[in-house]
Structure formats: structure tokens, C-alpha cells
Amino acid sequence: MGGWAIAVHGGAGVDPNLPKERQEEAKRLLTRCLDIGISALRSNLSAIDVVELVVRQLETDPLFNSGRGSALTENGTVEMEASIMDGPKRRCGAVSGLSTVKNPVSLARLVMDKSPHSYLAFLGAEEFAKKQGVELVDNEYFITEDNVGMLKLAKEANSILFDYRIPTIGTCGAGAAAMDSPLQMNGLPISVYAPETVGCVVVDKEGRCAAATSTGGLMNKMTGRIGDSPLIGSGTYACELCGVSCTGEGEAIIRSTLAREVAAVMEYKGLRLHEAVDFVIKNRLDEGKAGVIAVSKNGEVACGFNTTGMFRGCATEDGFMEVGVW
Amino acid sequence: MGWAIALHGGAGDIPRSLPPELRLPREAGLRHCLDVGIAALKAHKHPLDVVELVVRELENHPHFNAGKGSVLTSSGTIEMEASIMDGKSKRCGAVSGLSTVVNAVSLARLVMEKTPHIYLGFHGAEAFAREQGVETADPSYFITPENIERLKQAQEANRVQIDYTQPIQKEPNDAAAAARIPNGDSQIGTVGCVAVDGEGNLASATSTGGLVNKMAGRIGDSPIIGAGTYANHICAVSATGKGEAMIRGTVARDVAAVMEFKGLSLKEAAAYVIDQVPPGNAGLVAVSSTGEIATVYNTAGMFRASASEDGYSEISIWDSPIKVSN
């Protein structure tokens, strides 16, 4: 045991009807991000630097739901959030309600490193971003055509499904496609759900763990809605023992303080990483749907999910590497 | 068994020399709020209703750092936050960045019950408040002369104060002033309540104005499930202290985790968890499903009150220092 390990995710809860080429695109992106993380680890970058680096990549690529390519609020705008945590001293930083910051995870890091606080949001976070001189862009930069279409579908679905939680019979065109899978997450049909929060967990050669998570949140969310991704203990957690990043139904992750739970059963019950991940996925989610990636200080890596699929990739120093969707 | 309730008005550097004009109104406030909570429990109100009711009273009291009497941001404005959690269902609600809502805890409850989300912040939360028709007031309603003074002092000392009670004594010699106030910060703030009824239903709620002189947009532990507030089928916890330390320590969650995974009693678990936080930074109140009460802090004092169905009742500020359980 020992050595570095890295895992990345692009969200838990995948539409079983997702076109093959989208799956391949996702796997290519995950592979690319893993490679970036791996070469950073080989160059002796610390875990905290690597998770930030990798999540920046994921934010910049429009494929997943973070940074560019973020899900849209009910108003058609983007509000992004992220958190990052450094295992050794459990330092942490988080941001919410960002609309012009190109890389939310980096602003979260600056909150951790350069402010007296742990969590900044909305206007205050944007002001801090300006003062720190991070790269700022118009909100339009983050909005993709894909997601504009998704928002329309989500609004249609919500108006039909919101109170009933059952799929309707298909209408025509795009609506029908949305209704093909009766699978739902957070009350939306899986095809418009946009679960693809991104995250990365790393343990470096010195056994230091770190974790980071970033997202645009829930498609068609109320403006001002904060999910699990920026909440330390829910979407992100890292300590001496491990680094954890979660994705899926925000409510389920918050109620179960999922990321902290993995570390807590390791710390207080002495479970190993794989056992801890299995335990929380099996026992802590109740009816909720979510996925977890985690690394331990011993160089282990584990993924777990109770959803239909999770975009993920992991690698360890001894040459193991795997990228998957199902 | 039987019902039990505990509430707090903040842990911090409360000096024993606290003058009567500052101490008596707070003691009276604690007594009043305890009475309100006891009456509600005797009337068989559900603990979720009880904690909301009590925290509303604490928010309305101008001498505690929540609602009216909230401390001010660096811009002299008010940004309030709160969260509430039901133990059996683990449903929860949270709000941040409120500037006009008279009772933040009630808005948090509405988020939990009337939206598909858990957490709303800033302009989105304010918009939701208006939609719901909750009581709002001009920001000046919340601002008290004492807090204007505290902000001035904090800015002169160029420090973020974890609340009030201890105004910074102006000394010609800075070293003397620093020596008088341990670690230079005076701490308190935040209010909270936990309750359990005869059937083991548990609930917790926490509310605050945050840190004196905090950056606009700064979010502390109070609205973060697992940090400032937590409840499950084992216990309910409301914490207070230095937000950043409570977030990284997932304080409220850990009390329940340690009871569950290490088999500690409520009091042992509370002491264990507070002991992990750097001295002078934290306090909490907690009740268990079997009606036990724990109030623990590693600061100079904590404004608190508690009572149980067997006739026990207590209102205190000091004493009961944390004992490390072996």
C-alpha cells in the first residue's frame, strides 16, 4: 500500500439512453483529466494542488455540469458553487452563487488560503473574486445551447411531474425523448436531470489527501438555491485519513452528510476505505440517489454509487487505471 | 424518558465580570425562552415546532446575535442565516444572507417544507421570503447601537470578532489589551435550541448574524447541516463558536456519529467532540432520544438554559468546564 492515487467524477445518475458518442466523449474527458492529475502527481505536486488543477479542467470543458456547461437556474442564468478541502489540517474553502468567475474551484481555494473565512457566497464572493484578480467572464460564457434546451425540457417536466413524481405519456419531439426513461432524480426525468457535478480526490506520495467538488447545481433550480457541493461534510470532505467527493441528489447528500460519513466510519469504526464507501452507499442514503469517490492516505481508491451509472475514473501509482460510466 | 430541551445564546469569551446591565437582560431572555419551550413541550407540540418557536424568541431578543441584535458585516450591514433539522426524517432547511427577514429560522423551515430544495441564500432567499409573505422589516430594525459599537471596535482592532459581550477595552498599550482578552478575540453569538419529546422525536435549530466585521457574503457554520445543526434518531445538536472551526470539525454531526460508532453517551460524545476543536472556539447544546441533556463548551462561558420533564432546569453562563472523558 502507499503511493499516490486519484479519482475523478463527472456526476452520478446517468440516462441509460445516453447516446454512445456522449458516453465516449465523457470517457475521453475523464481520461484526459486523469492524465493531467497523474502527471502532476508524478511531478510531486501536492494533493491540494492536483485536485484544484483537475477540477479546473473539468470546469473549463463544457461537457459536465460545472463552470462552462453548468445547469441553468429557473431564470436561465448560471449560479456556480464549489468547495475544496485539504486533509492534513482540514483547511477548507467554499463558494456559492458565482456568476462571472471562470473557475469556481480556484476561488474556493482562495477563500481557504487568502481570506479569514471558509465560505463566501453571491455578491460577497464576486467582490472577493474581483479583489483577488481571478479571471472573470460574462455569465453567457457558461451557458451552452445544450443546457438552454435542457432547461426548456425541465420546465415542461416540472410542470407535469412536480407534484406527481410519475412520468407522463410522451408528447412529441424532445418531450417524448425526455419521457422515455421513467428514471428520475430530484423529481426530474433522468435525461434532463443534469447530475454531472464534477469532483476530484487525490492522495499524494506523502499520504496527504485532498478533495474538491464543483457544480452548476440542479437544472431549473430556484435562484439562490445552494446544493451539497459547496457544503463541507456533505459534498466534499478530507482529513488525515481520506478525501471524498460526492455527487447526486443534493438533499440526500446533505441529510446524510455523505462525505463526512465515509471518513467517520473509517475514523470511528475502523473500516477500510472500500468498506466505508460501500457502507455509506448501502446504509446512509435511504431513498436518495448518489455516488461517492474517495481515496485513503494508504494510496487506496474507491468509488460507490446507487444510481444508474456514474461518470468516473481512477488511477493508482502501481499502474491501475479505469474509466467508466456504468 | 420524557421531554427535554436545551437552548443557547452563544459560547464565547464571556467575562465573569460581565456587568449586570449586560448580564441580566440575557439571563431574563434565556429564562423567557426556556419557559416558552417548556410550555410548548407540555402542550405536546412536536420538537420541530418547539425549536422553531424558541429560536424565534431568541431572534427577537435584541441582546443575542440573531435576528434583532445581529452583529454587522464589514460594510455595516446585516446578513443573517439559520438552519433547522428534524431528527426522525432528517429533513432540513437552511437560509443565508438575509437582510430583511425578521425570523430567519422560520424561513429555513419554509425552505424545508415548501420548496424542493434545502438551502436558499441571499437574493434568492429574500425573494422566496416575499413570495411566502413572511414578516420582513427594514434592515435598520435589526441593527442595535451595541453592534454598531462592536463593529467600530473590531475595525479599529482590525479583527473579525467571533461576536460580542467582550468589547475591546481601549488601552494606550495594545499589549495590555491583548493580554486581557485571551487570543485577542471575544466570542459568542449564535442562538440555538434542541428538543426531544416523550416519543424520542428530536429536532434542532440554529440562527445567527455571524461574525462581527465579517466579509459580505461570508457564511458560517449555523446554516450548514452537520456543522452548526444536526439531528437524527439518536440526538439533536446546535453548536456555536468560531464558524470556520465548526465547519472543518463537522461538530454537530460528529456528536451523533461518535455516539453511534463509539457507543459514547451524549455527554461523553459532546465532550469528546468539543475537545477536538481548538480551545476558546466552540460550544454546543444537545439532547438525546432518551431525554439526556448535554451543554459543553471550551470557551470562558456559554449563555444557556435547559430543562427536562423530571423537573430539572438550569440557566447558566459559566461553570461546567469541559471535562475530557477518559
Structure description:
- The complex is a heterodimer of chains A (326) and B (326).
- Chain A is of the alpha+beta class and 326 residues long.
- Chain A contains ten helices and 15 strands.
- Chain A has helices at 20-42, 47-60, 104-114, 122-132, 145-161, 173-180, 190-193, 250-255, 258-269, 273-283; strands at 5-12, 80-86, 91-98, 119-121, 184-185, 188-189, 198-203, 209-215, 225-226, 236-238, 242-248, 290-296, 301-305, 310-316, 321-324.
- In chain A, helix 1 packs antiparallel against helix 2 (47-60), helix 2 (47-60) packs antiparallel against helix 3 and helix 9 crosses helix 10 (273-283).
- Chain A starts with a strand and ends with a strand.
- By secondary structure, chain B is α+β, with helices and mostly antiparallel strands.
- Chain B is 33% helix and 22% strand.
- Chain B contains nine helices and twelve strands.
- Chain B has helices at 20-42, 47-60, 104-114, 122-132, 145-157, 174-180, 243-248, 251-262, 266-276; strands spanning 4-12, 80-86, 92-98, 119-121, 191-196, 202-208, 229-231, 235-241, 282-288, 293-297, 301-308, 313-316.
- An eight-stranded mixed sheet of chain B has the order 4-3-2-6-5-1-11-12.
- In chain B, helix 1 runs antiparallel to helix 2 and helix 8 crosses helix 9 (266-276).
- Chain B is globular.
- Residues 168-187 and 321-326 of chain B have low confidence and may be disordered.
- Classes of the chains: A alpha+beta (326), B alpha+beta (326).
- At the A-B interface, strand 3, strand 4, helix 4, strand 9 and helix 8 of A face strand 3, strand 4, helix 4, helix 7 and helix 8 of B.
- Chain B: Pfam families: Asparaginase_2 (PF01112).
- Chain B: Its EC number is 3.4.19.5.
- Chain B: It comes from Hibiscus sabdariffa (roselle).
- Chain B: Heterotetramer of two alpha and two beta chains arranged as a dimer of alpha/beta heterodimers.
- Chain B: It is an enzyme of class 3 (hydrolase).
- Chain A: This is Isoaspartyl peptidase/L-asparaginase 2.
